Structure prediction request, 410 residues.
Amino acid sequence: MHRSGPLSALAALSLAMLACSGSDTPTDPGATGPRTPVTMTVVGPGNFKPPHTTGELFVRGNTAYTTTWNNFQSASPFYIWDVSGTPALVDSVVVPQAQTLGDVTTTPDGAYLVVATEYNGGSIVIYSLADPRKPQLVSRFSNNETNPGVHTAEVGLVNGKPYAFLSVDPAGSVAAKLVIVDLSNPAAPQQVFSKFIGRPYVHDTFVRDGLLFLGLWNDGVAIWDIGGGGKGGSVSAPVELGRVQTANGHVHNIWWLKDPATGNNRYAFIGEESPAQVGTSSSGDIHVVDVSNPSAPKEVAFYTVPGAGTHNFSVDEANGILYAAYYNGGVRALDVRGDLGTCTASQQSTPVNNPTSHLCDLTKMGRELGIGLLDRGNPVYIWGVQYLNGSVFASDMLGSIWKLRSISRP
Prediction:
């Protein structure tokens, strides 16, 4: 999934302003039409194909962690990789009482690993990373509210304190729920907030500068003040600022971009997860939402790949490049720096099922920079992607993990 951004001491200023390594370089045909995307260079695949389906991915330093999905057993493993060169498996950890694993991430300081578990008996499991290659169990947080299953667990700082934002599965007549957990004492996590929300899911969250973005599936994208929105909100008493319905709903994941080169934090990128068949097909676009007015966010652009759909992305903010996992469409790299909401009529398109909408089309605007993993001669089904220090890592449901070289700006 996307990762949470750092806390800014200038959160109020950030709201007021809402208004690279590697040698792969795309050919720039100018600003009038699509460019020719490069084929991203693959450093190598993992040296091991797990006996279970690979799910989430998180990388810190030279160590990566991948979860396993839909094991339907009494326990589920996650895997630990050395990614200093070609990814190599170094160890695994079995999580008991977990039929499947959701998110995996670290706390912002890298001291602890947090793993979400599904289904019945949902929880987050916290491990010490005193040795990143040998996680040691510290605690497990579970209660009646998380019991249906924790699908995603994003971790971020608010006012200097780490919190986990848990997206809890619906179960029967029990609706989906957001649960927020204080992780400042990892040995004894404390719940500070919960709310039934989302239709039918609250799928994912993104936290930055005291704002919380919520992916509410068919209820759209909500923006909450949890300490930085100027409306008196807090983690334990959020205040909703605004909400938007993006084309086709199915709001899955979110990344609010804060460009360190330009200071631009006008756009949030929304992943749509629409119908798919594991290993063969997928659908769903990336939607660009202008959040310069958080009380009235507005979709202004989109990116579509015929025959494929997105599932999680990561942004190289220093270079303004978004990397998207696109299931059977591999990895896609997009230029997201600058004005994405202004385009000519010839650069507009109509999203599927939305005949009256005419939005800027990132492909027609020449924003598609690169494509990865479709030149290998074998199918891929990319679940997660993460940019880190000049490399792009991808988790493959049909394999294990890939390491690619990042894109250079044209």
In short: The CA atoms of residues 322 and 343 lie 19 Å apart.
